[in-house]
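Take a minute with the sequence and C-alpha cells given here and flag any C-alpha cell that looks odd. Thanks in advance.
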Amino acid sequence: MKLERPGPVTDLTPRLLPYGDQALLVEFGNRVERAVSERILALNEEIAGSGLAGLRETVPAFRSLLVKFDPLETAFNEVAAAIEHLLSKTGSVAAEGRTFKVPVCYDGDYAPDLDDIAARVSLDREAVIEAHSSVTYHCYMIGFVAGCPYLGDMPEELALPRRTDPRTRIPDRSVAIAMRQTVIYPLVSPGGWHLIGKTPIRIFDLAWPEPALFKPGDRILFDRISASDFERIERELEANGGKLKPMTG
C-alpha cells in the first residue's frame, strides 16, 4: 500500500463504490489527512448507531470506509441510500478516542535501525528519539497484520521511505517508522519499515475479548524507557494479564 504524506485536502466529497456483491466502499479525499480520518470515523459511528439492515461490519482505513452487508437482507442501492442520508447530516463529529501512553525502549538491540535513521535524517540519536516521542499520534487504521496500528502524524524531519531491503522477520512489539507514519508490529512478521524501538506491551492477543488493543481514532503517546524498565514493565504486565489500560476514554 502506497501512503501519501499528509497535506491539504482539496475535496472531501465522498464517493460510494460497489466492492463486490457484499460490500460498499465510501471514499473521501485523495490524501492521508487528519480531517479525512475524522470524517470517516464520524460516519463509522453514524452507521453503527443507525440500525442499518443487514450490516455485518465496517472497516475504517486511511481515506475510506468499507461497509460489509448481508446481500440476503439488503442490497447495494439500499445501503448506499442509507449512507447518503447519514452523510447529509451536518456537524457529525467522531467521539473522542482513548489515549494510551505506550512505553518504548530506544536502546541497543531494541532499536537496530536508530543509528541509520539518525544518519539519513541528519540528526543525532537523541534528537531522533525526542522527535519521535514528542507527538500525540492518531490511529488512522488497523491493518497489514491483525492489530497493527498505523499512527500519524510523525514529525516531518523523520520522514523516510521504506527500506530497500525489507526484513523477512521482525520481532513482535517492534516500533517502526516510514513516510510520516509509525507502527507497532503486533506479531513476528516480515516488514520494510525502519526499527526505531520496541515496547514491552502486547497489542494483540486472541485471549482478550477484543484481541486488538488499539482502534482507529485512539491517541498514542510514546514514553521513553530504559532497558531495565522494559524488563520490569514486561514482567508486571504479564503478571496482570498483559494488557495496557488507556489513560482516558
In short: Confidence is low (pLDDT under 50) at residues 1-10.
